[in-house]
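Lab channel / #folding
Pinned by the channel admin:
"Please post every new chain as: sequence first, then the structure tokens as a reply. Keep commentary short and put observations after the output so the thread stays searchable."

First post following the new format, from NK:
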Amino acid sequence: MFADFALHERLLKAVAELRFDTPTPVQAAAIPPALEGRDLRVTAQTGSGKTAAFLLPVLHRLLDQEHKGDVRALILLPTRELAQQTLKELERFARFTFLKGGLITGGEDFKVQAAMLRKIPDVLIGTPGRLLEHLNAGNLILRDVQVLVLDEADRMLDMGFADDVLRLANECSQRQQTLLFSATTGGTALREMTGRLLREPQHLMLNAVSELNEKVRQQIITADDPAHKEKLVQWLLANETYDKAIIFTNTRTQADRLYGRLVAAGVKAFVLHGDKDQKDRKLAIDRLKQGGARVLVATDVAARGLDVDGLDLVINFDMPRSGDEYVHRIGRTGRAGGEGQAISLICHNDWNLMSSVERYLKQRFERRTISELKGSYAGPKNLKASGKAAGTKKKKVEKKAGEKKTGDRKSGEKRSRPKNGPKPSLVSQDGLAPLKRRKTEE
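Reply from TO:
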């Protein structure tokens, strides 16, 4: 029970009104040591309730300490959507307190943000890039920050924010506590950041990678080509039982193309990617949340941190390029203990990526066939022990004794060509036009 935590009574009152009775596993594990002031390194699946796991201890600390007049807590996140959702959660938990939060992300008016910073919020939530702009402009002072929180730290590294995060963390030189949360273990880069920023941290592994999103049914459907995938997507949206769906592509171009196909087929959908401005992004997410559209086509960066109730179907039009990215994608569904379904469409060039993800998760995805749209590709004919496609080896043709290769010449023999004459050209089979030499593609 939340009442068992040593939280400030005003926070417990807010939690009770929000009807948060039983803490999730990550909240039960992280809140007590966070209240003790420990640095934490927490790995927990997306949608597990980790936002409350760091917000409640942060607010408790600030309520018990005197306000010095500058920002006292900094929360860094990879995307503006996730930052906006975190601010809303903060406002819900702080409703019976005097604590105020501020939001700094890209896509908003810089001068308006500077004016907000002059009012000095207690908790500042933002994305690294825009926060650095304000720091360089002299609008942001972080010397009194007591708590630094890095949420979705693995994704911030994936997006290239490592240097920005380290710079901002160094500005919080007087901080007393650092909390780092991620959905995956993150590899060497995240371990290095943990070593540089956290002091004697307590490591909390709430879920092994292989256990993440275990309530999500994971399937693959083989496809011949992108056009076949588009037909499969339309069939799935017409025949699967779902409330809301998100379709991931690896490129903006493919996202726009698929969105156009779906709209032409009468599907109420929105598209979300990096070329969309803040107004369009907000409209797409709001329509999805409110039910004005049931389908969202998105790239990974755009959909990062997306939290929509009832989103129970994820379709990977393109297979993600890493196991961590796959975990983040399917984390959009099956949130807060709910069930969901993730379907990946696999062409011949997706197979090895899919196989790598299976090995990373130590799982085998369910194979599925849609009889009405069954294609010719059903996976590689030969597989390696790893599950990847086995390449075909070219057979060596042995020469018979005494037989020479075409074009072989005796030692010292020279090719006959008139002195100062033109070099021989490559001629097409019909003898009409010379062929251009082609560069070998990598």
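NK: The first helix runs from residue 9 to 17.
TO: also worth noting, The chain has a mean pLDDT of 84.
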